[in-house]
Amino acid sequence: MSDPDYDKIVKMLVYELKAMLIPELANLMGSGPEGWMTTSDLAAHLKVCEDTIRTWAKQGCPHIRAAKGSHRFLQSQVVAWLQSPAKELQGSNPR
Q: 77, CA 20 to 30 Å: which among 18, 29, 38, 54?
């Protein structure tokens, strides 16, 4: 059982950290080939379906997890991963 004041302080600190970090993350999460791309942006760019991108992410394609479980990708990292002979793309047929 925790102290109610402690919980209140922790919640306040988390709120303040989010307020400081969210604008910085928004600057880092630009769009385009050299910025972070969403699953749908990357799928459109590579002309594959979004399910293929999600499968690749599960198979080790470099990505970060963004809000609510969505993924963000750097195109250059994805292309390098696709060209890597070490990876296996089982069940990732583009549709």
A: 18
Give tens-digit pLDDT for 26-52: 555 554 446 789 999 999 989 999 999
Domain parsing of the chain, residue ranges:
1-29, 31-95
Q: Tell me the residue ranges of DSSP E strands in 1-95.
A: 36-38, 64-65, 71-74
* Whether the model pTM is above 0.85: no
Residues 71, 60: contact at Cβ < 8 Å? no
| Nearest residue to 56 (alpha-carbon basis) of 28, 91, 30, 19 | 91
| Residue type, position 84, single letter | S
Instruction: Give Cβ neighbours of residue 63 (< 8 Å, ≥ 6 apart).
Output: 57, 71, 72, 73
For residue 52, count CB atoms less than 10 angstroms from its CB and return exposed for 0-12, middle for 13-18, buried for 19 or more: buried
